[in-house]
Design a protein that fits this description.
By secondary structure, this protein is of the alpha+beta class.
């Protein structure tokens, strides 16, 4: 990541909006923004598959594994303002092939730490799991509030956008999909 280039760009933006980038409150802002961008866009340099360690369970569990309410934040690539919310990730393992629950949260974090669209975020999480875990099926539901709708444009704070992606058995079996959605919505 080119932090010097980011600092210069932020300085140019401050000048363009009529601010003095050398005044006390702003003089370190370009450096702070560059450091922040290094952190919030760190997913650009990481393959999310790296997080999905696989282990095999003798009992060969082949029922739904669901992790709900994984908090995330990302940056909308259209306006470079945040969107944030919860991700719900479920999969049905095949042949006892499992991954750690925290690994699913790490995949979410990695994919979210890129300039992003919610639709792409949802699909990338699902596709990463399918590729690495080769399960019977994957379901990913993302609920998010977009600051581009809250602080500008239509100015509708509190509105949520929901996206979902289903792969494998969840595409073909309405009962499996319904069970997963019910647990996401109502399960505790």
């Amino acid at each position: 990541m080119d932090k010097e280039k980011i600092e210069k760009a932020v300085r140019d933006i401050l000048e363009a909006v009529g601010e003095n980038p050398d005044r006390e409150g702003l003089k370190d802002t370009p450096k702070r923004i560059a450091k922040m961008y290094e952190e919030i866009f760190s997913g650009l340099e990481v393959d999310p598959e790296e997080h999905l360690d696989i282990y095999f369970q003798e009992e060969k569990h082949e029922e739904l594994v669901l992790v709900k309410d994984i908090s995330f934040h990302s940056m909308c690539e259209h306006h470079l303002v945040p969107f944030f919310g919860k991700v719900h990730v479920g999969y049905i393992p095949k042949n006892g092939k499992l991954t750690g629950l925290s690994k699913l949260a790490r995949v979410v974090d990695t994919v979210a730490r890129r300039p992003q669209l919610q639709e792409r975020l949802t699909a990338t999480i699902a596709d990463t799991m399918v590729k690495k875990l080769q399960p019977h099926g994957v379901i990913v539901v993302v609920e998010a509030e977009h600051m581009c709708m809250t602080m500008r444009g239509v100015k509708k704070p509190g509105s949520k956008t929901v996206t979902s992606v289903v792969r494998g058995i969840f595409q073909k079996d309405a009962k499996a999909r319904s069970e997963a959605m019910s647990l996401i919505q109502f399960g505790s």
